[in-house]
Amino acid sequence: xxxxxxxxxxxxxxxxxxxxxGVKTRLTEKGLNAVNQVAQSLVARELDKLxxxxxxxxxxxxxNIRKESLTPPQSQMSLSTNGLxxxxxxxxxxxxxxxxxxxxxxxxxxxxxxxxxxxFSGVSLTITLAVDLDGNQEPLLRSxxxxxxxxxxxxxxxxxxxxxxxxxxxxxxxxxxxxIRDKICELVEKxxxxxxxxxxxxxxxxxxxxxxxxxxxxxxxSLVFTPQYIESRHSGEFYSKTGRTTTPLTPAPIPDWPxxxxxxxxxxxxxTAKTAAYVTQSKDFLKYTITKQSLAxxxxxxxxxxxxxxxxxxxxxxxxxxxxxxxxxxxxDIRSAKTPEVxxxxxxxDLKLYGQLTFTAGGQTFLxxxxxxxxxxTAHIEKEILVGNIVDFSLSVSDVTSTLGDAQIDNLNKxxxxxVSTFVQPALNDLANKGVDLPIVKDIRFTNAKLTxxxxxxxxxxxxxxxxx
Length: 469
Fold this sequence. Notes:
Residues 1-18 form the signal peptide. By secondary structure, the chain is an alpha+beta fold. The chain has 9 helices and 21 strands.
């Protein structure tokens, strides 16, 4: 189950397209070795608690089947261009059971009963796992091949005519051994194929960004297996849940990555951020009106046009405002004038917003302008979530139209800096701090995760632990 989950960690349901990925993940040999250790522990645990039901028909019955001894297998995983090969070896067990049979021959019924011990040693299993695409171009975890071997098998009867059965068991013991060997692969392949399909359905194909938007984690091509790593390549496109349209943007190629120190690497390109800018602009989402009612009670007086000399409000900054529009409040309508520009650089996130601002008082417009707001940000990993933070900003103003006179315009930058620092930056950080899920399954936890920005993309380098049962 652990191996299935790790592979599914690298999978999402998708149509296959020949595109550069917006998001990419890579599990290295170091990561696979950790998976192998977890898998070995899980296999040992599952075998230890395995209960075997009674078997039989009208003639032969096996009851009270129970393990007397068990040596769990050693696990080994390796990668190749054909997929992942999982080898379980040196497994041995001894099983005790009660048996009975009855058979009617002519007018007579022959019957006997007793107990027996079946001992297996030197049992090994080799299975190759890969990803196939079905008729709908959706990936399915499949077994590409299985082989099993039983080094030694011994059957010893007790009770009834046990002396006779032990004497002639050589006539049928190898046949039983071969049937059990073939049954091992049949059961394992069924487990992989059925559980693989079920686990795929639990894997997130997208990550919500607020209530209206999401990130697409569909595959852009089939899973890539090499002798050094397993790699998945995902769309990473930002889209609206209320009506998806294809963006005209395409991801740039992700440069080669020579490092293998960590178990897992995740690349997120600025294509994801650029599609977010494009979609939110095209959906007319980037707009907001600041009024007294939209502010916390303690901040509402700041929009008043009239206040005492001891208080701070819009009227105390712009004298003409209190003279021309007394005893009312200011409303600020903010709309994006064009698609924001966003880029990942070695310094972090660079975001440039272009806003059309309209100031009204008492329902009358007294000032409008264009504002270019440049923001810089960082990001980090918090509990497997990509979290951002705006750390600095600067702004410039152009195309100012005002009824207050030129003398009042000198204070406009002060007003706008106050608006950004008091309202815009905290609002952006509230959104960024909610973070975005990464394409992993629920039982994977990051340890010692490190996030680094590069020109055009960021990389999360981390080790992982498995916390599932």
